[in-house]
Amino acid sequence: QTCQWWDDYHKRTADGQEWISEPGKELLAMICHHYCLHRQQQHSPNTGVSAGTGERLDLLEIGCGTSTLVRDLKAYFEQDHSFSIFACGTDVSKVCIDFSRQRDEDVILEKDETRSNDDDDDSHQRLEQGRLQYEVLDVVEGEPPRRGWGLIVDKGCLDTFLFRSRQRGGNRDYNDLIRRVLDNIHTWLASSALYMLISPRAKLKAVRDYAGFASVRRYPLPKQYKAELEGKKNKDDENPGYLYVCTKNNGYVVGSSAPFSKGCQVLPQDDDRCDRCEITFIDFRKGEEINGRGSVFWTRQWKGHQIHCKGM
């Protein structure tokens, strides 16, 4: 029923539609900046090595709709930072995928209109041959053409599940549907890779407390590219939404680890620093021993600081 609803919606919407934020250059630069910063820190924060210059990045967008974001990100990473990009935009609606394939036909090196939604043996080969792909994907039950993505981008996809969980009642913050989507994202990411979520919501408890993320940081979006929220009036017209940058926790095991431990995750080291204000974890605690208030308390406090810190 959900797939049919989205198909019908996009059939009524003839032109491409952007949600939450237009993919303007400032937004593209923002996403690229945080990815490059992450890669630089992985190499070594003190070497001065910059990401790009031929480095390969496998980029997946979930819930792409008819947005041009994945196409524009691919072009920006390649042209401005010399990455070698393999990009795939996915959506549950075949109408969206067909629309995007036709619109971006000149960018797609190999166009395969006959491919079904089922996995097959040569799907990986097709992704390698086509530097930009659009594929049908159900993020709850499906599987993308491959795993090991260096960056997964989500502009409004998880928000639809948060809305549905609110409509259904129950545990709104840690709904099982949300857990399944986040677990799939965790499974599809490469080791220590990034999931970037674009949302109008100032608080995402399920994302903040998901044990599959080692860190979650929030950044305001550029105001000039604010797009519409279908069926919802934003009370704060000045609020353009947020970019959440989430790093995969390699120690989390889907199906074995507790998915929502409310901040009880890997305990930071005393010399771990906040990327914005550079305060160390021990200075953040003002030298207080962890055993006093416990690791759960301090891990959650540290994670909350990283999300909301405004810098020096």
Give the helix/strand layout.
Blueprint: H1 2-12, H2 25-43, E1 56-62, H3 69-81, E2 84-91, H4 94-103, H5 123-129, E3 132-136, E4 149-155, H6 157-168, H7 176-188, E5 189-199, H8 205-208, E6 213-220, E7 242-248, H9 281-284, H10 290-293, H11 295-308
Parallel strand pairs: 1-2, 1-4, 2-3, 4-5
Antiparallel strand pairs: 5-7, 6-7
Helix pairs in contact: 2-3
Keywords:
alpha/beta; 36% helix; single chain; 312 residues; 11 helices; 7 strands
Task: Walk me through the structure.
Mean pLDDT is 80; it is low at 110-118, 167-171 and 228-235. The chain has a 7-stranded mixed beta sheet, with helices on both faces. The protein is α/β, with parallel strands linked by helices and 312 residues long. The protein contains 11 helices and 7 strands.
| Portion in beta strands | 15-25%
Oligomer: single chain
Share of helix, binned = 25-40%
Assign an overall shape: globular
- Mean pLDDT across all residues, rounded? 80
Strand order of the largest sheet: 3-2-1-4-5-7-6
Q: Spell the H/E element sequence.
A: HHEHEHHEEHHEHEEHHH
pLDDT < 50 stretches: 110-118, 167-171, 228-235
The helix count comes to 11
Rg result:
20 Å
Give the terminus-to-terminus CA distance: 49 Å
How can the largest sheet be summarized?
A: 7 strands, mixed
State the total count of DSSP E strands: 7
Q: Which structural class matches the secondary elements?
A: alpha/beta
